[in-house]
Known about the structure:
Elements: H1 5-19, H2 35-38, H3 42-56, H4 66-73, E1 77-80, H5 88-95, H6 105-125, H7 133-157, E2 161-162, E3 178-179, H8 181-198, H9 205-208, H10 214-227, H11 231-242, E4 275-279, H12 300-303, E5 310-311, E6 325-328, H13 330-336, H14 342-345, E7 346-348, H15 349-354, E8 358-359, E9 369-371, E10 394-398, H16 399-413, H17 422-433, H18 443-453, H19 460-466, H20 470-473, H21 491-494
Antiparallel strand pairs: 1-6, 2-3, 4-10, 5-8, 7-9
Helix pairs in contact: 3-6, 3-7, 4-5, 6-7, 7-8, 8-10, 10-11, 10-16, 11-16, 16-17, 16-18
Amino acid sequence: xxxxxxxxxxxxxxxxLLNGCKKELNVNPQxxxxxxxxxxxxxxxxxxxxxxxxxFAYQAGGLYDKAAxxxxxxxxxxxxxxxxxxxxxxxxxxxxxxxATTGPQGYLWNRGYAGIxxxxxxxxxxxxxxxxxxxxxxxxAELKAMRxxxxxxxxxxxxxxxxIEGTVDPADLYNVEQTTPDKIYAYVEKDLNDAxxxxxxxxxxxxxxxxxxxxxxxxxLGKVLLYQKKWQAAADQFAVVNGTAPGVAASVYGYxxxxxxADLWKTSNKFSSEAVIEFVHSSLSNGGWGDAGASxxxxxxxxxxxxxxxxxxxxAPDYFSGYSFLVFTQAFYNFIKNDPRSIPTVANxxxxxxxxxxxxxxxxxxxxxxxxxFIARVSNKVATTPExxxxxxxxxxxxxxxxxxxxxxxxxxxxxxxxxxRAYQLLNAVRARVGLAPVxxxxxxxxxxxxxxxxxxxxxxxxxxxxxxxxxxLASKGFVAGKNELFPIPQNELNNTKLKQNPGY
Length: 505
């Protein structure tokens, strides 16, 4: 569902505008697609909408995405790879040696603002496009939901960011200033509330799987409110998403926990009942090394695989040999090893090697403990550049996550949390799914469950920061309190502008 052409054309137009026009340049306008002559038909609008979705699930050409950054920024995973500078953006994130010119912040910033730019352009043009009114309203809702998501990520990662509400004249780009986080949050909440009102409750997954729904926008709004500690308001949003009988019956939107935790990580299990917001990948994009980031395949599938893997016995998994990134620490393995989610989450290659079932080549900072949720399988490979074209999707938000967030919101809102309470049902439905006994609803138990359930899914670092625990938990990795809760604003965005760098950089 991700197309590159329209966004590239739009950004190219922007670059041309910024560089100015030379009188001696003779261009035949009939041969060019411009912003003024493109947005005319419903097909144009749909292509432009897809271009925004393209940024929503965007992966960097450096073979990583948002989840990979969040994973190595946390305490449970290391960058790994082939050496101390391999995918250096991940290495400096793990060690907290980021600077304004070194790190993944350029990807995070550009992913967000390119998405916002594309959304704003279509929103400014869509009234003039002849198309069905209901379909137009849905497009607008999808654009606002994604714009809200982009701004939420940006304010989470950078805090001090510009609010660009529409299109900006190129002459004014260098005069844009940052605004306060509360204004960003208010804008996001309005976008999401507008979107919820017009989005469909469900979509036909065979033809529209991956497109945003009412439940997806509502879950995202709940998360936005949770991050602001608006506990009851957050719980109210999650309650609709999660349904009246958590873990027992499907919600009004059809969400229900997948019975088998391991099934969540099967490539064929797209758009399951647990997927609330899903980033779609495809094995059919034919992506190549000329622009790895343009592939529609899931790049996590290749970077997380063990190097030089060989299956010596059919009892061993048919892993596709990869690059040994995002390895788990021994401390995390000790934490999860007795939990039923251990094997679907962690691939213990040293154990397979010791049993004579498989072999592999240790990578940098090797622990032998790999992210099993995403390692590609030979059985799923395609003929052309298989490394870049594995079709496993990613969950941006899934139901177990919203169960745990609602339980946390209820606890902090002062709601009842004893046996039989809604918070108790939510927390323990996640545990019951993997055969674990109930536990009391406490902040510690919720944090523990999130760490076990969502490992390797890009949730750990944001959780630690919002809980105020990052400085303590990540101190050994070089985390500095008052600085590393945020990423540095990219230097290229500061040059000749009114933007100011975040503290400590």
